[in-house]
C-alpha cells in the first residue's frame, strides 16, 4: 500500500493506492500557512478494516509535523482517531 499526498493552493488529499487501485482518500482544506482541516475520509469497501484510513491519517500527520502546522479534524473518522491515539496529538489544533 502506497500513500501519496496531492495538494493545490487550497485543498489536499492523502490517497491510498494498492496495485494501481485507489483504496481510499482523505481530503483536507488548507486554512492558511499553519493550519489544515481534515474534512472527509473515504475507503473502498474492499479495504474496510485494513487500516487504510489510519495510514492516510498518519501520512497527513507526518506532513503536518514537517511543515510545523496544526490539524483540525472535522471528519468523524479523523476526529475519533485523534481521541484514541495520543501520539498524534502534537499536531492537533487545541
From TrEMBL:
Which residue range or ranges hold the N-acetyltransferase domain? Answer: 1-94, 6-93
- Name the InterPro entries for this protein: Acyl_CoA_acyltransferase (IPR016181), Gcn5-rel_NAT (IPR045057), GNAT_dom (IPR000182), GNAT_YJDJ (IPR031165)
Instruction: Return the Pfam families for the record.
Output: Acetyltransf_CG
Q: Enumerate the Gene3D superfamilies for this protein.
A: 3.40.630.30
What's the superkingdom here?
A: Bacteria
PANTHER family in the record, alphabetically?
Answer: BSR4717 PROTEIN, PROTEIN NATD1
Q: What is this protein called?
A: GNAT family acetyltransferase
Amino acid at each position: 500500500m502506497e500513500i501519496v499526498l496531492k495538494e493545490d493552493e487550497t485543498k489536499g488529499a492523502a490517497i491510498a493506492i494498492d496495485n494501481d487501485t485507489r483504496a481510499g482518500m482523505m481530503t483536507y482544506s488548507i486554512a492558511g500557512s499553519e493550519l489544515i482541516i481534515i474534512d472527509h475520509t473515504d475507503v473502498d469497501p474492499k479495504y474496510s478494516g485494513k487500516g487504510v484510513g489510519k495510514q492516510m491519517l498518519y501520512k497527513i500527520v507526518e506532513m503536518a509535523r514537517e511543515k510545523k502546522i496544526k490539524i483540525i479534524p472535522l471528519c468523524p473518522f479523523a476526529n475519533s482517531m485523534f481521541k484514541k491515539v495520543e501520539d498524534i496529538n502534537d499536531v492537533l489544533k487545541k
